[in-house]
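Ligand: MGD. Inputs:
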Amino acid sequence: MEAGRLVAIDPHPGNRATPDGPCLKGLSYLERIYSPQRILHPLRKTRTGDFERILWEDALDLIAERLRSAKAKAGPRSVLYYSASGTKGLLNGCGMAFWRLFGGCTTTYGDLCWPAGLEATRLTLGDNRNSAPWDIAHARLIVMWGKNAAETNLHQMRFVEQALEKGATFVVVDPRRTQTSERAHLLLQPKPGTDGALALGLAHLIIEADLVDRDFIEAHVLGYEAFAESVQAWTPARTAAVTGVPEIHLRRLAQDLGRVKPATICAGFGMQRYTNSGQTLRAIIALLAITGNFGKPGSGWLYANLATQIFGPLKDPLDCYPPEEQGGIVRVSLSTARLGKDMLAQHDPALGFAWVERGNPMSQNPDTSTLREAFRQLDFRVVVDEQLTDTAREADLVLPSKSLFEQSDVIGAYWHGYLQLRQKVIEPPGEVKPETEIYRELGARLGMSTESLDAILPRAGDAAVEAWLQARLDPFAITLDQLRAGPVLAPGSEEVAFADGRYTTPSKRIELFSQEAERRWQVEPLPTYHEPQESNASGQGRYPLQLLTPNTKNGIHSQFLNLEVIRQFEPGPVLYMGPEDAEARGLRHGDQVRIHNDRGELSLPLNIDFGLRSGVVVAFNGWDLQSGGTVNLLSVGRETDMGHGAAFHDNVVEVEKARKK
Ligand SMILES: Nc1nc2c(c(=O)[nH]1)N[C@H]1C(S)=C(S)[C@@H](COP(=O)(O)OP(=O)(O)OC[C@H]3O[C@@H](n4cnc5c(=O)[nH]c(N)nc54)[C@H](O)[C@@H]3O)O[C@H]1N2
Ligand SMILES: Nc1nc2c(c(=O)[nH]1)N[C@H]1C(S)=C(S)[C@@H](COP(=O)(O)OP(=O)(O)OC[C@H]3O[C@@H](n4cnc5c(=O)[nH]c(N)nc54)[C@H](O)[C@@H]3O)O[C@H]1N2
Ligand SMILES: [Mo]
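Predicted complex:
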């Protein structure tokens, strides 16, 4: 800090998980906060489609009038409240309480990010418990499965490196060669969406070679016999044919999994963006169960560490997002994965008003075109954001949002177990106000009493915010002063998950056989493999290429990609393709290509990627419409087999040379 201005961002020495400090994106906040692209006052769309400055008073009056008329005309459920994963926090999540006070609204269930994996984990182990991030340093075998930690969780690689220094074996499973796989001893490149078959084939080999841990199975596993029988059909030859992974690699990984202890499997979110992902992850967890890799240092399943989620019902994705009414007030009727389609389909009442905050659905949700159509059919749209995102551009009114440095909040994580105080360090610039104040002023205009607003929101001012946060921490006997001194491990965060041998499934055992899976999601009670609904596994058909749209190292979804410091490394969207597929189409590095399917098309420069398996093309998600790289123009709104996630990667395309304009 210098003269009220942020000048540097340093790591906190008290956080054992992140001693290396911020990545480039973290450091680039210095540019982001003071960027000329930042919105500093409310904006209203003019008749010509441009935005003009409007006073806060007028903006809030206009919104209040629109909300009152929407409610009078069609009831509160004609109002859609949508929020996504932009900066989390205890206070940042207070929007929902406002809309309850409003009388309810329509909101979404499911999530774009991780729910298929959360649910697969919960069904199998009872709970999403993870060992501390540094525990992986004790592993002798690490399998990083569908996760690209070197780019999306870079601090994890420090602990992986520590394990490697002690002689651990490191295996990566990813159709792409990534910065993570550069460190691996073995890279398996399955056809996208076939990991379920891969896991079942590995189980077959482990069982056949009698490398299972009988004592552990006896003590802790339900359904082993039935599972063992079901994987008999997954011979190495069949597994290799389905997955495209050579038999010799299958045998090597099966031997490692059976013999090298302790083993940790770290699964990513990328692999659970398919219509078969829940079952896939159940099959992968089974590999740890049959080899007894739970409850000991260096062993276990790393997917999502929910230790810090102590304030809400996130632990059970179903409690959090039931597709029924919640307390009779909020109507949770729209699937996040099918947002556009479901918005269009909602009647009684039809939607008329939308409020979007902390999210950019126009680029991040599947099926951009349908979503845009659904937004355009509304009477009125409000977006709260720092930047004119693709979603903000569709709004009638854009309200500026504060950045994470401009209001204190308590934040958790989904990899480590630390609760942290994100302290306010600068005043919001321009006319920016935190959402809490926006809601207060709007509430007053809508006739909500001060007492009812006091019950859900702090008053304006730093002292009131801190008192509000302290009250939320009180039940856990944590003080803001403690958090001011440094990160605090959340109560219940564990060094070694399941060291107590307690699995909170219905049978109190690790459930390879889960009746709950069948009952809730209509899948087989054993983990099984079915081809994803939309896949090119056959390599035939009009769209023979599977399009993967993973996260980029240099952005967080649609954030940061507009900054100059980032553009030096990530100048614009491109399509990656392997040499064989390019040659078959007469394409060369640098050609402008047309990527298309029945839903849409993109035109991007081609990058030949020698590390990509054939049949797969890759474009990173997050680019805005102006850049021409919005990948969700090609994806479809489809839910995963469990957890109401979004099956982004069930997406086939064809690529050809773009015609010269
Ligand atoms: N730099 C950066 N870091 C991030 C984010 C970001 O946007 N940028 N986002 C954060 C968020 S919200 C999330 S959810 C996480 C996501 O973190 P990750 O799970 O690491 O990210 P993804 O890029 O979605 O997917 C990881 C890998 O899965 C691979 N994959 C795709 N399909 C398959 C498949 O069928 N089988 C296998 N085995 N692998 C497959 C992709 O090629 C990709 O390399 O990252 C977090 N960290
Ligand atoms: N094709 C494809 N699509 C994907 C994925 C994929 O792998 N492939 N990944 C999916 C995943 S894992 C995720 S998590 C989602 C992310 O989906 P989103 O959360 O919609 O994506 P972001 O681009 O991170 O948008 C967050 C927005 O919140 C704003 N913001 C940040 N902080 C605040 C704040 O305090 N207040 C307000 N009002 N706004 C704020 C940011 O400026 C940004 O515009 O994308 C999903 N989309
Ligand atoms: Mo995510």
